[in-house]
Amino acid sequence: MNNGIRFVLLLAIMSGMLLTACSSGSGTQTLSNINWKLVSYGPANAQVPAAEGIETSILFSTDGKISGNLGCNGFGGDYKQDGSQLVLGPLMSTLMACPEPQMSQETGSFSILNGTVDFLLGGDNLIITGMNGDQLILIRQ
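Request: output the structure for the sequence above.
Response:
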């Protein structure tokens, strides 16, 4: 799939999520106790699809802990939800080396889960945008 089509697809997903979020009424959006799966990661205008056949998970628990696996190593740490932002970290991870594409997928995704990040929740989709704003991950229930 070329980058132009990926970008248009990502914009369509994000627009749908924004409409869903705006129409859902007031109240705090919850991320907790949902087993999120990686869909794509990387630059906003050139998302890399998650590797097929590789199990991934991200879980935000109600006690302020985040844990998961993005393709290779397990990770965990603390998080705090503040409106449409998450304060993550410090996050710790096991340090196994893994074959490609797991290693690139994990490195690219995990680097976004750092510090204070923005998120957008709509329907079954969650977009987390990294601190610099040009990298994101799309995860789905």
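Residues 2-27 have pLDDT under 50 and may be disordered.
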